[in-house]
Amino acid sequence: MTATLPAPTTDVIARAVGLTKTYGTGDAQVHALAGVDLALRRGSFTAIMGPSGSGKSTLMHCLAGLDASTSGQIWLGGTEITGLDDRRLTQLRRDSVGFVFQAFNLLPTLTAKENILLPLD
Known about the structure:
This protein is an alpha+beta fold. The chain has one domain (12-96): P-loop containing nucleotide triphosphate hydrolases (Rossmann fold). The chain is 21% helix and 26% strand. The chain has a 4-stranded antiparallel beta sheet, covered by helices on one side. It is globular and about 45 Å long. The mean pLDDT is 85.
């Protein structure tokens, strides 16, 4: 069943429609995402949960423009990022996207707050 998504508005900060991501080919093909529809609203809290290998990181990477989707559409704010060239995608990520990883990629000599604020420097 396909979810009914709200029309793009200023309170939708990230949106995906029919998002798919496939790795490999032939017998080694893996469908990490298969037709994901999602709208994340400003000021809301969203938890993406599931077992290892269920596509959580793939979804986040695609939504942030860190990984290209196989098909579907993704918007960050009012900008559709699917099909953006590398220069514009880099600019959008630099200005609009931030990640805080669970355990790794943090600087152990900094506090949690300092790690979060580091990209702003």
